[in-house]
Amino acid sequence: MKARVHVMLKDGVLDPQGEAVRHALGSLGFEGVAGVRQGKVIELDLAEGTTEDTVREMCERLLANTVIESYSVDLG
């Protein structure tokens, strides 16, 4: 079983990597980009029967810094 965890900075948290990408896109001639937020995707190979609650606990304890980041979980 696979799970995907999408981790993004919360709204209002400065995203210097996203701003650098936005600036670079402008330098390459892509002028219509008003903002960029950069995050990460973590893909987990899990044993059958692993619950979404278990994956959320992994996020809370290790995979996401919940002070400044939010996350979503997709089981598949």
Automatic annotation (TrEMBL):
Q: Species name for this entry?
A: Primorskyibacter flagellatus
Gene Ontology biological process terms from the UniProt entry = 'de novo' IMP biosynthetic process
Name of the protein: Phosphoribosylformylglycinamidine synthase subunit PurS
Subunit (UniProt): Part of the FGAM synthase complex composed of 1 PurL, 1 PurQ and 2 PurS subunits.
- Pathway(s) the chain acts in: Purine metabolism; IMP biosynthesis via de novo pathway; 5-amino-1-(5-phospho-D-ribosyl)imidazole from N(2)-formyl-N(1)-(5-phospho-D-ribosyl)glycinamide: step 1/2
Sorted alphabetically, the keyword list is: ATP-binding, Cytoplasm, Ligase, Nucleotide-binding, Purine biosynthesis
Known EC number: 6.3.5.3
Entry's PANTHER family?
Answer: PHOSPHORIBOSYLFORMYLGLYCINAMIDINE SYNTHASE SUBUNIT PURS
Stored HAMAP family: PurS
